[in-house]
Design a protein that fits this description.
Length: 177
């Protein structure tokens, strides 16, 4: 993650230098005028690092969850990936696309192109469009359901033993056999 952040900052600085106004000084060197966008980007980057540190100190630790208010518990669940926001977004997009495809098909019933009635295509779009949209979004939802099932299995395995959250639990149990 740190490498991604450094890479992002480096690319931004490079692009800023490419788009900044360069001037040739009397001694033959090139100087770049640094605009306020660069300064604002550096301030935003520093504030982002401060926010990350604050979230890691005040929201993410499990022992802090009981002291948080409702909004804090929601943030705690989001930052610890206990609730999957992408699943809800995908469901909303599915509903939108299904209604959109049906409406396009309905509007094609009343449209002609080069004196050719498009109603036949509209009926096909209204019939096959939602099926195709459903298949595409079901493929997306398979990933979310897989993740939810893995989390559920992990919680069921963790609950009876009350052990720590070792990532190598399975490997350590196998070495004792």
């Amino acid at each position: 993650m740190f490498i991604c952040t450094v890479l992002t900052i480096t690319v931004f600085i490079y692009l800023r230098l490419l788009t900044s106004s360069a001037s040739l000084s009397p001694d033959g060197s090139i100087s770049y005028a640094v605009g306020s966008e660069y300064i604002l980007a550096v301030i935003a980057c520093v504030l982002s690092f401060v926010a990350v540190i604050a979230v890691f100190i005040f929201i993410i630790p499990e022992k802090k969850r009981s002291k948080l208010n409702r909004a804090g518990r929601i943030l705690h669940d989001i930052f610890n990936f206990r609730s999957l926001i992408t699943e809800k977004i995908c469901q909303g997009l599915y509903i939108f696309h299904t209604v959109f495809v049906i409406m396009i098909g309905f509007l094609l019933l009343f449209y002609s192109y080069n004196s050719h009635w498009m109603g036949g295509y509209g009926i096909l779009v209204m019939f096959f469009g939602p099926i195709i949209v459903r298949l595409i979004f079901e493929c997306d939802m398979l990933v979310f359901l897989l993740v939810k099932n893995v989390i559920s299995i992990n919680n069921k395995l963790r609950a009876p033993s009350n052990r720590s959250n070792d990532a190598d639990r399975y490997a350590s149990n196998r070495s004792n056999d």
